[in-house]
Specification:
The structure is a single chain. The protein has 93 residues and is α+β, with helices and mostly antiparallel strands. The protein is built from two helices and five strands; from the N terminus they run βββαββα. It is globular. The mean pLDDT is 94.
Amino acid sequence: MRVAVRVRPGASRTKVGGRYGEPPQLVIAVTARAVEGAATEAVRRALAEALGLRNADVTLFAGATSRDKVFDVDVREGGESAIADRLTALLNR
């Protein structure tokens, strides 16, 4: 499953939730600055935690140097609907 994300680096705290643009991207704010991949790594970890997955289950697919990123989420068999429901809830925050 692929998840489109809009990153807000340098935030006062990490927050996952909200939508940006059309089609909607999940907004993730992280305290890490956009230097040497620190924000991207922080976003990857925040997304994994928000979806209730291991960090290793979330990998960057596209957008290494952009605020707009796409992550591959490795969903175990039968877990697609639970992850989709969680994403919908996060987008509607």
